[in-house]
Design a protein that fits this description.
35% of the residues lie in helices and 28% in strands. The chain is elongated. 16% of the residues are buried.
Length: 130
């Protein structure tokens, strides 16, 4: 080791990093595409160029890639995050992965999001039938 190294030895990578909020959102985006047989897609992107704030959007490829943002997620580290349901404007504070997944499920299965999904699916199917 060089005497100029002030970092010391690096720690082992965190084993459960794959369960961080971003990967869970990406996982659900993939499921949306599978469930809708490609009529809808999910996309996770950074909000306003911020690394720790993400949005989950529904994309409709058949409608010129129309996008509809359903939630944002602000990550504070150590598994803490705030999910904001953009339909109801309700915030869900999550202190661990279990709370995060429960809040995310509540948002994704809410009446408001289901109405949006139903409307977008109907429009995409109508476009297919043209």
């Amino acid at each position: 080791m060089n005497d100029n190294n002030l970092w010391g030895e690096l720690p082992e990578p965190i084993a459960d990093i794959e369960n961080m909020p971003l990967s869970t959102l990406q996982e659900q985006a993939i499921f949306l595409g599978r469930l809708s047989r490609g009529l809808l897609m999910g996309r996770v992107s950074d909000c306003d160029g911020m690394i720790y704030r993400h949005s989950l959007k529904i994309i409709v490829p058949l409608l010129n890639y129309y996008s509809y943002t359903i939630l944002t997620c602000t990550v504070f580290g150590k598994g803490r995050a705030i999910l904001t349901d953009l339909e109801s404007e309700q915030k869900h504070e999550c202190n661990d992965e279990t709370e995060f997944r429960e809040a995310l499920q509540k948002i994704l299965q809410s009446d408001e999001v289901r109405k949006v999904l139903g409307t977008l699916l109907a429009q995409a199917r109508a476009e297919c039938d043209r």
